[in-house]
Amino acid sequence: MASAKMQQNLDRTLEFIKKFVKEKNYSPSVREICAALGFKSTASVQNYLERLRAEGKIRREYSKNRTIYLVEDEEEFSDFESVPMLGNIAAGQPLLAAVENDVKLHFPSDFFHLVGDNFCLTVKGESMREIGIMNGDVVLIRSTPTANEGDIVAAQINNGEVTLKRFFKRGNEIVLHPENSSMEDIIVPEGTEFRILGIAVGLMRNTLAR
Amino acid sequence: MASAKMQQNLDRTLEFIKKFVKEKNYSPSVREICAALGFKSTASVQNYLERLRAEGKIRREYSKNRTIYLVEDEEEFSDFESVPMLGNIAAGQPLLAAVENDVKLHFPSDFFHLVGDNFCLTVKGESMREIGIMNGDVVLIRSTPTANEGDIVAAQINNGEVTLKRFFKRGNEIVLHPENSSMEDIIVPEGTEFRILGIAVGLMRNTLAR
DNA sequence: GCAAAAAGTGAACATATGTGCTAAAATGAC
DNA sequence: GTCATTTTAGCACATATGTTCACTTTTTGC
Description:
The structure is a homodimer. Helix content of chain A is about 25%, strand content about 30%. Chain A has helices at about 5-25, 30-35, 40-55, 70-75, 95-100; strands at about 60, 70, 80-85, 105-110, 120, 140-145, 150-155, 160-170, 175, 185-190, 195-205. In chain A, helix 1 packs across helix 3 (about 40-55) and helix 2 (about 30-35) crosses helix 3. The relative contact order of chain A is 0.11.
């Protein structure tokens, strides 16, 4: 059975591998581990590695160089999407150009529905506060040129500022409805230059406390 | 200059490395790349790798085995915190035990303030909707046994359900204030068993659309 | 203490792998 | 087509690295 010292060395080994991979992006060699743990023989390390493998803590490919990795990391790995942040886009500037400015946020894909192209924007103002979209929130938008009635859309009228509102149609007009009872609907008459950039699918807020 | 075919091979090489690393968790060897691209000489691959390195697309350690990795991945890499989700905790059960149930969500650390220990919970009910915390939202909580007045705290009274409210003191009583004008403050008299689990620092929502 | 078991050492060995060099093949400009 | 340039092939070579095994040292059970 594993003595206390042995157990400690197993932990140190795991710790070292984890740190090494995080730092260098590739697996340590047996000899590197050997040096790091202060052993004088690589055989000792083989011993530890074999135990860790048996315990299911690490995996490695037989006889291949630098192919050790932690099973834990494998499980913990969460995919995420790197989503461009929409800044203040100048009038007439196409969306994609603005997006070039290259500020990106990461949305974990184990929580958000991330399909197709996405971007995100920071909410300014109180127009959607009654459904819990507050000033300063970051809203995740799925890029799409169309929307269904009732969707929350990011839209642009006459190439002006991008606005976030609930989307409805009334006859041939489009109605952009703020979720704030003290504000009026925006009516977009037929023929107005109007563009849906996408629909809101998620939200992150980091302003509850600091 | 790079011919079209050359460029295509550069792309294929990058693509292969990316896929390989994602799949196997370790870097391909030069010979593996060679085989995958259908070359007959590793020298060809060296040629490509050197170009990619010069372009800044990849990094590698001179003469070390399997140490190729994409710079793109490095940049895209967002650190994240794996945060345990607080389920319904049974009466009297200490928090940490409940947390063992091991559902975790990932919070990107480039957006949230992640210091110390954290957990998260799903909001039930409408008691905080006036500050934009809605039913179904996931709230990130920083574990701490104390709070300042005005903080939004996750707290437990008499080992009952965990509740999310704004925290105040009034004399020797504690006041838990719902941010919903149709609900009453909860007064916690002195001597009541009361425990602050942490304070809310962030929020994620994926229910805006599906 | 003592014997058995466990852990660590050293050295050799096998191979996986990166590198470099020359020549052949392919490509491109004219 | 011809020639210059680029790209690929073929090897040889140096090393980095994993593996194994006999032997020594340390630890453990009694």
